[in-house]
Amino acid sequence: MITDFHLLVIHFPIALLSIAVLFDFLFYFTEKVDLAGASWWTMFFGVISCFVAVITGFVSDSLYEHLFNTWPFWDNHGMVQILSFLLFTLLFYVKTYHSQTIVRFQTTYLFVSALFVLILFYGAHLGASLSGRI
To answer: Do 39 and 45 meet the contact criterion of CB atoms below 8 Å apart?
Structure first.
């Protein structure tokens, strides 16, 4: 069934975006330039896979119909993951077009990146709860 694609896709953004942030932390402590490049490419594919996960999530929502019914939004898996997608897209934009800002505010960038990963993990937890996996 077409709604099953969401279950296949959702693991990619979780893995790729969290690993991209891990590469940023490793780059901060080791200053190996290859880690910065690995972080950029991993985040690039993570944002793309997150977009695909959001689209397949809209399709899957036809089964659950929860996206616009739950308030507050932090209890809504779909809304939290859309927020996470937008935050990581913003982070990728800054990483790509304003890299000097990251150099000047490295610890702030790392803190914000880690916070975004926590939001992503929380949204994944809500999704697992919604599907009855936990």
So the answer is: no
pTM, whole model, 2 decimals? Answer: 0.90
Calpha distance 123→64 (Å, rounded): 16
Domain tally, the chain = 1
Cα–Cα distance for residue pair 117/1, rounded to 1 Å: 30
Nearest to 76 by CA among 130, 114, 121: 130
Q: Using the predicted structure, report yes or no on whether residue 63 has a pLDDT greater than 70.
A: no
Listed in sequence order, the residues at least 6 apart from 84 whose beta carbon sits closer than 8 Å to its beta carbon are 50, 116, 119, 120, 123
Domain that holds residue 107: 2-130
DSSP 71: S
